[in-house]
Amino acid sequence: MPVPYAEPVDEQQDGERGLALPWADGTFPPGTLSARRAVWHDLMGLALHEATHALASDDVPVGALVVSPDGRLLGVGRNRREETGDPTAHAEVLALRQAAASWGRWRLEGCTLVVTLEPCVMCAGALVAARVDRLVVGAWDPKAGATGSVWDLVRDQRSLHAVEVVGGVREDECAAVLQEFFAARRGTAG
Ligand SMILES: [Zn+2]
């Protein structure tokens, strides 16, 4: 059975893995609060764009991406449960897999994961397992969120690794994408 993960790109040097993103002052994330907010805003825009691709397979539109410690785009993912029939094919898991494959290692220390919807229990566990340092969240999930809403696995003192959480980035836009999806679904269900 083929392994569904991308192979690491061996010819790249460690510092050159992933896709360079145009940061204004060359540091990631920028030191000032306003500059950081602008970066989270832009990255969430990429995650939102990825989320909309899930609509083609009637998957719940959630998008995620992983940025390396030096601000390079290492992985992108969208919810593909319906498309693949895989219960673990959440946006965050797929973005983490791609990031690990492109960096050539499973430890994603110093990395930031950006996602349009608060991670579930599985994805929060994956963030801890991958040693991701920062999570940027769009909309909160009061029913199943596991990074602050229902549970908080990434800041639980018993967790092996703590993750900084930046919440509410483009929250209204991220929530609207989901609300439109579920409203349309209710419409077709009659
Ligand atoms: Zn999840």
TrEMBL record:
Cofactor detail note: Binds 1 zinc ion per subunit.
Function according to Swiss-Prot or TrEMBL: Catalyzes the deamination of adenosine to inosine at the wobble position 34 of tRNA(Arg2).
Family that this chain belongs to: Belongs to the cytidine and deoxycytidylate deaminase family. ADAT2 subfamily.
UniProt protein name: tRNA-specific adenosine deaminase
Top EC class, one word: hydrolase
UniProt KW Zinc keyword: yes
UniProt-listed InterPro entries: APOBEC/CMP_deaminase_Zn-bd, CMP_dCMP_dom, Cytidine_deaminase-like, tRNA_aden_deaminase
Positions with a binding annotation for Zn(2+): H90, C120, C123
Enzyme Commission designation: 3.5.4.33
Quaternary structure, from the entry: Homodimer.
Reaction it catalyzes: adenosine(34) in tRNA + H2O + H(+) = inosine(34) in tRNA + NH4(+)
Active site: E92 (proton donor)
Cofactor(s) the protein needs: Zn(2+)
PANTHER family assigned: CYTOSINE DEAMINASE FAMILY MEMBER (PTHR11079), TRNA-SPECIFIC ADENOSINE DEAMINASE (PTHR11079:SF202)
Native source organism of the sequence: Isoptericola dokdonensis DS-3
Domain of life: Bacteria
Gene Ontology biological process terms, A to Z: tRNA wobble adenosine to inosine editing
